Amino acid sequence: MTSPVRRAGVFAALSTLSLAVPLAGPAIATGVAAVVLLGAFLVTDVTGPAFEALAYPGDYEDGRLYGLITFVLSAVVLGLLAVGSSMPLSVFVGTVVLVGYGNLAERLVRARTAAGTDADSDTDTNTDSDTDNEIAAVTGFCLVATAAAVAGQAAVYALTNVPIEPRLPTVLFLAASGALLAALLRDAFLIYDDPVVMLSVGLLLWLLAELGPELGAIEIVGALAVTVALGYVSYALDTASIAGMITGILLGLLTVVLGDYNWFVVLIAFFGIGGLSTKFRYTRKEELGVAEENNGARGSGNVLGNAAVAIAAVLGYAASSTALLSISAELFLFAFAGSVATAMSDTLSSEVGSVFETPRLITTLEPVDPGTDGGVTWQGEVAGLLGAAIVAGLSYVLFPVVDPIGAVIIVAAGVAGMTVDSLLGATLEGSVLGNQGVNFLATLAGALVCALLMIPIAVLG
Questions:
Q1: 178 pLDDT exceeds 70?
Q2: Boundary (domain end) residue, out of 210, 238, 271
Q3: Which residues cross the membrane (predicted)?
Q4: pLDDT digits (tens, 9 = 90+) for 115-124
Q5: Rounded to 5, what percent of the chain is helix, strand, coil?
Q6: DSSP H helical ranges for 326-403
Q7: Of 304, 346, 389, 411, which residue is least crowded by CB atoms under 10 Å?
Q8: Residues 45 and 108 in one domain
Q9: 80 shares a domain with 157
């Protein structure tokens, strides 16, 4: 057994101690955490078996088990929230075991695939095998983390004599959402940054639990199947990286469960059409030096930059529908449509307009090189208008509340957001903002324009 696997096994076992809160109460659980922390501080012999079993590579330099200490402290923070706030104990336990056992599964898969690669490879580089191994590791993490989170939540319900059957769909939804977010964060951060992952997952699941999704078990499983299948297709077609695929699956799942499949269709239309548009005359884009990296495969930053506002609107819609917010749910729907229309409009404008050699800077109309931030072409503007119209058309068909005037407003919001993107690109991108920041602000502008334009109509109507 390798050292990373051994360490992950110990951390997984320690994560199970989170059950001490519902089993024995906060006082006993606090004592258990204190004993573990004291032991972590006392074990300082870097050559001893205990230190070697628990230490991350960075722990050896200072002779402290900082990885274990921060792991336990982050669990304690979540435990305090569960005891002293509205966070359910099931969310606390589910989150801790999700991280602990998910890590163990990933380490086991990596050790197994690494051994297989070493045995089968005759060269120093094996890109296809590395990619397959990464997919296997992520899959192993997500599957086991989901199962562990389900088991942890179920154990809490059993210990507190609460029937789990009516809560099973929510349990599965929370477990899968937490596993996907954890996998995404582990890709973004250092692989041993468990405290950040644990706290982030716990806070998300707390929010989702408060929103109280009402889908049944079959609907939740169906939503998972659909989003995972489409996510894998996007990866197989090279329109998304592994991290981009995970991000898309998570966002799609939240959209289906907290909105419905109509919301999901609008969002997936952007991902699908936008992803395929990166392939439009890709060779020409490479010649001009404006092609997306990684053969056009979009990463998590790109996906989040374009869809974060849309998902915030979905969360706002769910919160409004459950009376957690007093804002009209319809405004969140139009904010969602406006942000997606902006993302679609901007993506098509960039991907189509970038192949033409006569862009002009939007602020001065001076000719600039292809790919210059803030450069626009009439072909790109027409493509952007078409993209906004596609989202507006889908919204008109799928959402009864969207009438012809609402559809026109969605188109206007998409074009407005696209224009904001170009203006920010010409003025702030590169010096103050990165590309993802520009995308976020542009989609936020589109969402706000759409929602604000609907307020007087809603009042008069």
A1: yes
A2: 210
A3: 68-101, 135-159, 171-192, 212-233, 240-257, 263-282, 303-319, 382-399, 405-426, 438-459
A4: 665 555 444 4
A5: 75, 0, 20
A6: 329-353, 378-398
A7: 389
A8: yes
A9: yes
